[in-house]
Structure formats: C-alpha cells, structure tokens
Amino acid sequence: MTTPRTLFEKVWDAHQVVAEKPDAPAVLYIDLHLVHEVTSPQAFDELRRRELPVRRPDRTLATLDHSTPTLPAAADGTRPYTTAQAEAQVHTLENNCAAFGIELHGWDSDARGIVHVIGPELGATQPGMTIVCGDSHTSTHGAFGALAFGIGTTEVGHVLATQCLLQRKPKTFAIHVDHALPAGVSAKDLVLHVIATIGVGGGTGHVLEFRGPAIEALSMEERMTVCNMAIEAGARAGMIAPDDTTFAWLKGRPRAPQGDAWDRAVAHWKTLKSDDGARYDREVRIDASTVRPTVTYGTHPGMAAAMDAPVPAAANAQESRALDYMQVTAGKAMAGTPVDVVFVGSCTNSRLPDLRAAAEVLRGRSVAEGVRMLVVPGSESVRRAAEAEGLHEVFTAAGAEWRVPGCSMCIAMNGDLAQPGQLVVSTSNRNFEGRQGKGARTVLASPATAAASAVAGCIADPRSFFQTSEAAA
Amino acid sequence: MKPLTQLRSRTAVLAHTNIDTDRIIPARFLTTTERTGLGEHAFEDWRYRADGSDNPDFELNRPEARGCQILVAGRNFGCGSSREHAPWALLDFGIQAVLSSEIADIFRSNALKNGLLAVVVSEAEHRWLLDHPGVELRIDVAGGFIELPDDGRFAFELDGFARHCLLHGVDQLGFIRQHAAEIEAFEQRVEQAA
C-alpha cells in the first residue's frame, strides 16, 4: 500500500529532477515561467553575461503590467509613462523577449494584462503544473491545483537558463473551510478572515491547501482570489484540488489541451487531490458561515476584522503605531470611516465577476462627492467582456474612472497612487504603510464593499445595497 | 557571489515586527533595470523627512547605527513581495546580515543568494539582541553560531547547502547546469508520457 499523499506532495514528487538530499535541495522542474518587466531585466543580463539561451521559450510567457500606465495612449501612440525609467523598463522587456524568442503579450496583444490574470485566461495555467514568476502573487495559480510560487530575480535567471529551481520541500498546512459563505459575503472576505485567523506570518515555510465544502462551492475566480492571498499569510503557495469547476473553466482555452489530449489530461487531473489519510504538518478549521464583510484596519493583511466589529485594541507597540498611521480608533468599527479613494482592480480582484459585483452596487447610483474611484480591469480580455456587458458605462455613469489593464494602484509604481493621508478602500492584496503612495492609508476589501463604500463615501456593508436593488426591481 | 565565512560588526536594531519589502524598498524605485544603486533608497519613507533631509527619529540614522553591518529586526522581517531589490538595497546600504526570530521565505531565499546572511535565532536570543543594540557580534558561518562579546554563543540553523554556497561563493546557476543530463532526461520522460 502506498502512503497517502497530499495534493502538494503529488505535484512536488512529479517535478523532482534530482531528489532533495540532506546536503542539497531538490532540482525542481518548472512547467510554466511567467515573466514581467520589473523583476526580469537583471536576469536576462545574467544570461547575456554567461552567453546562455533561454532553455524553453515555449514554457515562458511574458506580459507588461506593473510599470504600465492605465490611461490610454495619445493619438500619436505615445503612452503616459510616469517616468522615462518606467518606459525604458518596458522597452527592455520588449527587447529581451525579441532577443530570446519569448512570447510577449505587449501593447499590441489583445491578451495583455496582469500576469496572474492572463496565465489562467490563456489556459497556460493548468492543474498539476509547477508555475513560477518573479512576483509573490504567483500563488494565484494554485487555484487550479498547480504548485505556483513567487521567486526572486536570481531565480528568474535560473529558470530562464535551466527551466529548474533549487528548492527545499516546504511543509503542508491544510485550511479546512466548513459550511458555506452567507449570501453577500465574498471570497475576499473569507481570505481576509483566514489571514486574520492564522496571522500574517502564520503560513511561513508552508504550502497552504484550501479545502472543504465552502472552497468547493467557489468559482474559479473566487478560488484565485483566495490563493492569491496565501502569500499574505506568509505561505509562498496556496493550492486547491482541481474539480469539475476547474475543468469546465479551462476547456477550450487557447493553451489548454484539445481533443483526446484534453480527455487524457482531465483523467490525470482528477487524481490531483489529497488522498484520504494524507497528513499535513498543520491544520486549521474555519467556519465559513461566520464570515461577514471583512476589511483591514491596520498596516498588514492580518490586521483584518468584520467591518461591523470593533477594531481590536493594539496588542503591542507596532499595532499601536499601525492604528495611529491608519487614524483608526480601537473599539470602534471600521464601517462608517470616511473614504477618499476607491480602487477596484489588481491580481486579487480584477476579473469579470469582480467587476460585475462592483457594477451591481453602482448601477443607478453615484460615487459620493469628493471620492475618486478607479476601476482597472485585469486584462484586455476582461476589459472587452466587461464592455460587451456595458459595465464600463455603469462605472463611468456613476463617476468612476474606467482604465486600461495593469497592476495600477495595487503597487502604485505606474503613477496611479493616492496622496499622503488619503484613505483608500482597495480590492488589492497589501495594506502596507505607503504601499499605494507615501502616507496613503489602505483598507483592503472585496469589490462589492469597495463599490458600496464609494457610493456611501464611507466604509459600507454591500449587503444593504444588494437588498435595496432587489427591493427596487 | 563572494565567499562569506564570518562577519564582525556592531548591531543596529529595527524592532518593528513585519517589516515588509515595500518598507525596505518602495515600489516606485523598482523601475530600475540594474541591481546597483538602491542603497540610497533603502527604508526611504522612514529614513527621510518630506524635505529630503534625514529623519533623526529613524533608528538607522542615529550616529551609533552608522556603519553597522548587522541588522537585528523584529519578527517576520521581509514579508510581502518577491522583489530581490530588497536584499540588493540592504547590501548597497551596507547591511551584510539580518537577524530575526522569523524571516519571510522569499526574502530569505533572495538574501542568501546574494550573500546577505539572513539568520533566524530563537525567541529568547532575539529578545536579548533587541534589548542590546550596538553589541559587537561575530557571526561564524561555518560554525553556525553568533559570538557575543563575553564569549557566549547563540547557535543558529542554516540550511547545509545555503551554508556551503556562502562559504565557497558557489554559483548556483552553475550548480543546476551540472544536472543538464538529468534535466534533459526528465523532459524526455514527461513529454513521452503526455
């Protein structure tokens, strides 16, 4: 009898080119390497220095997303880059992809977008794969049952040159999510709740596996939101076993297997789940039915609570400093806090269902006076689909700005940023001090909460907006 | 990477927990295509006042912290993004080692690949180091211990391979490329099975 294995162990075992030894890490094969402009230039330089080619351009996929402006190009084709250096960085990736034979979804591609949005859209992300990118939110792709994690630029060079990485086997951590999320409560609320439960460093050294009925009930986009934020609990990767939801979502996508190959792939993918009796290094149980619309109140994603619950008292000097920075009062709920800026976008929440959730709240309503709202679709595909449904008109009619795809205000390195002191309700993944602009105060939230807060002018529970619109209909 | 066998320096202390990589090097400096020159922006938003002058309240701006190569930092140092610009910025700033009770996975991996010693010590030792800023330490990479001025020692765990790479300046890309035949065989096996 074979030892029961977890999903992670099955994917790990299948990719060990050289097994891990006490004195040497495993040589792990990488099926898909995603590349963007910020973390790759120095890696390509290293290949040039050593006169090495990219070993598998066919397993490498590049896009432009971080440094790119989200305002459209001028009539003469020039784009409003925030600095000449940002523009030069984009050109560097264009040149590197041309020189090394890598498929780039650049400005002229109708599939360009945030790297963690387009990988799945193209069907490049598949169950059982190992996927890396010089970006910590690579954990997103674990939603498909892939082992996907962020790497540094030196490792980007390793993968470009060898298609392999040196890795120590991480530990496993099962997050069992029982029961079902209440109506009007989203995957974003759930993952913020999970991070608040296990802590911002609670997953360090581990791969998370999200499992249980509440996870199985999630759509692929919701699963991506959950796995995206595994890194915010310190875990390099989060995984969800693939199932019929996964297969139906992938079928027919450009890079997905076709015909007989599809059937063979699905038969294999069905084996990619943790065996009964498989052991995890750690386990925790979460009751989904207790989750309410959740927001952050501090300066890391673990400082999160239901928006109608009192903000916990600071447990130490750092938390006290975080509350001061956020201008938040312990004992008072976050709901009702005045808002300056609302951002809907990022690899966490910029997919079509996210935009629909925001639009449902905004339809027939207006962004409150004095509030600026940016809606940035995750990819050109999302943008086209949203425009085909008229969502862009809902946003612009409400007074929000409808932008060109990119990372935008999540990382705030393209010129989309908040001013010092401004409070941003953001559907992104990090509320670190200064993340969205020096001195900016970030409150992480779901797309529906973000939209409700834009309308109310203060942090607001979206469920009352849904009920109103149903009553009106 | 240059070999690193030991490091002797006074410590500077940044006691904040969860110092994230945006804190270490804000994203607006990531448009560079070089590895060098990031030191002047390390901890930028803590380090400088609005007028660009040094913030005297920032721990690393204090006279006694100048020239310290060992940073003792609060728990979960380096959390957040995968940007290798964080260890590049610290090294360029003059930091050669980071000691904490917990260091985020990706940061630690990036740091060690650049010869920045990222060392996890026990909670009690961490507490002691936080309480003794400016103490002169000697970090012995081969021996796996930190030597205190009174000859006391804090042992630390370091992955054997990471230690070997630090001590001998091993080129890890070269190391992987020694397995070229196995990589080739793996690809053939997988592609035949598909």
From TrEMBL, chain A:
The protein's required cofactor(s) are namely: [4Fe-4S] cluster
Q: Which residues bind [4Fe-4S] cluster?
A: C347, C407, C410
Q: What is an annotated GO biological process for this record, any one?
A: L-leucine biosynthetic process
Q: One matching Pfam family, short form?
A: Aconitase
Q: In which pathway does it act?
A: Amino-acid biosynthesis; L-leucine biosynthesis; L-leucine from 3-methyl-2-oxobutanoate: step 2/4
Q: Which UniProt keywords apply?
A: 4Fe-4S, Amino-acid biosynthesis, Branched-chain amino acid biosynthesis, Iron, Iron-sulfur, Isomerase, Leucine biosynthesis, Lyase, Metal-binding
The chemistry this enzyme catalyses reads: (2R,3S)-3-isopropylmalate = (2S)-2-isopropylmalate
Q: How is the cofactor bound?
A: Binds 1 [4Fe-4S] cluster per subunit.
Name any one GO molecular function. 3-isopropylmalate dehydratase activity
Query: Which PROSITE patterns does UniProt cross-reference here?
Result: ACONITASE_1, ACONITASE_2
Q: What is its EC number?
A: 4.2.1.33
Q: Which domain of life is it from?
A: Bacteria
Query: Where does the Aconitase/3-isopropylmalate dehydratase large subunit alpha/beta/alpha domain lie?
Result: 9-457
Q: Which family does it belong to?
A: Belongs to the aconitase/IPM isomerase family. LeuC type 1 subfamily.
Please describe what this protein does: Catalyzes the isomerization between 2-isopropylmalate and 3-isopropylmalate, via the formation of 2-isopropylmaleate.
State whether it acts alone or in a complex, and with which partners, per the record: Heterodimer of LeuC and LeuD.
- Protein known as: 3-isopropylmalate dehydratase large subunit
Q: Report the gene name.
A: leuC
UniProtKB/TrEMBL annotation, chain B:
List, in alphabetical order, the Gene Ontology terms for molecular function in this entry. 3-isopropylmalate dehydratase activity; isomerase activity
Q: A GO biological process this protein is involved in?
A: L-leucine biosynthetic process
Gene3D superfamilies listed in its UniProt record: Aconitase, domain 4 (3.20.19.10)
Q: Which Pfam family, any one, appears in the UniProt record? A: Aconitase_C
* The EC number(s) this enzyme carries: 4.2.1.33
* UniProt xrefs under InterPro entries: 3-IsopropMal_deHydase_ssu (IPR004431), Aconitase/3IPM_dehydase_swvl (IPR015928), AconitaseA/IPMdHydase_ssu_swvl (IPR000573), IPMI_Swivel (IPR033940), LeuD (IPR050075)
User: Quick one: a GO cellular component term?
Assistant: 3-isopropylmalate dehydratase complex
State the UniProt keywords alphabetically: Amino-acid biosynthesis, Branched-chain amino acid biosynthesis, Isomerase, Leucine biosynthesis, Lyase
The cross-references to SUPFAM superfamilies, in alphabetical order and at most eight, read:
LeuD/IlvD-like
Family statement drawn from the similarity comment of this UniProt entry? Belongs to the LeuD family. LeuD type 1 subfamily.
Subunit-level organization: Heterodimer of LeuC and LeuD.
Instruction: List the PANTHER family.
Output: 3-ISOPROPYLMALATE DEHYDRATASE SMALL SUBUNIT, 3-ISOPROPYLMALATE DEHYDRATASE SMALL SUBUNIT 2-RELATED-RELATED
> What is the protein name for this chain?
3-isopropylmalate dehydratase small subunit
Origin organism is Oleiagrimonas soli
